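Here is one chain, start to finish.
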Amino acid sequence: MKTILFAFHLCLGMLAAASAAENGRVQVRVDLAHPKLPAGKKHTTYLKVGLTGLEAPKDAKPNRPPANVAIVLDRSGSMGGEKIQQAREAAVAAIERLGGDDIVSVVAFDTSVMTVVPATKLTSREEVIAAIRKIEVGGSTALFAGVSKGAEELRKFKSPQMVSRIVLLSDGQANVGPQSADELGRYGLSLGKEGISVTTIGLGLGYNEQLMAQLAQHSDGNHAFIKEPSELAAVFTEEFGDILSVVAQELKVKVSCPEGVRPVRVLGREASIRGGVVEVMMNQLREGQEKYALIEVEAPAGSANQLIGDIEVSYRENNDTTPRLIAARSTASRVESDAEVEKSAITPILVEVAKQIGVERQMIAVKLSEEGKVKEAEKIFLDNARTLQEQGQRLKAPDLYLQGNTQITLNDGNNARGTTWQTYRNAAQTMANRLNTQNGSSNAASNLGLLNNGQTILVPGAGTLIVPQGSTLTVPGTIKITPPASK
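Its structure:
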């Protein structure tokens, strides 16, 4: 029988448009960017439905679900030397974190695919480690076939009570079999519907960042760009920590808007919008992680308090056989003046909206650049950068301002397409994927450093930001950031 918890909320006066309810290991929080709407006209606002994985009660016995993991390693010729050596050792370190009830498989690919370790319960750890250490480099890059084989191995033992994930490492372009980002994105979407997430790790400057990011994002997995092989062990360790702390799977957010309220789009996620009903699927949620649906809605003119939507979040805890359900309601009050509407605005949501839209436009520009449409890409980059800077000033959000500044800085290297430009593209894809999946990985800090050329500064009241070496950035009315001069 489904467990149901209802949490209705009403936004009145100066109250934020927020409600929170929890059931088991998941908390749902509903926020409205504008809890007050103008009485006499239509208004566009944003509904955020956030899902947070909760820690287990202190007196609860450790009871994590078994992991079902396929490690898929690129062993093409470009992976020779330090790359394959570090990849092997990172995979070994990851294996060391797993327990005897976990299932592991290891697949290696070049022109063809080799099953190094068929899916097996991890009772003979040393045999698995020995097999990994025998992987040697070969020919081309049959990436799609490698991922497909990894999924095939997962399916041998896959069950709802397991956390199923593919961890893919590659340093190159897919040049055998399906090769486009769209094809891999569609495949990722199909795996996500099976309950399989794909984490993609791109190593160096030669891999197809758009393809790898699409595969991860559409399966609700993580994506990381690693510039140096020495970073691999830390990223693998973190990724397996993520796998071993999953608290909920098969998450679904459903928002039913009343007549007159029009859902326009969902930012940063695949979604279904049919009439007034929005559905967003998420694959896995780990302890301490927040994932969310950010929905743009158009509310009608009116005089009475406005129901924005009824929200249902269903999910399955790892040991559940039936889903749990949390329900909430989002309602806004009416005011007469635009000034009251703006005064009620929840700034963190508007900042998140600006980031998501900025990333969306950034990725459009990257794709245009890939197609050789450099002038069109440059225009979108610069327009987006100016918009982000303006929003950073208006919302007093230095990180938005820096997001815009980064694009202007890199525009100088746009036509050259050299190392700097490729580094930016790879790092940008990782940051985009982090925003879209809300994966707060430590690798995000490394990639932000690459985007901004590596100067870290603690800014009072604004947290840690990274700005270009030797630059002075001024955000009028908010903060002036001056990194120390180069030595």
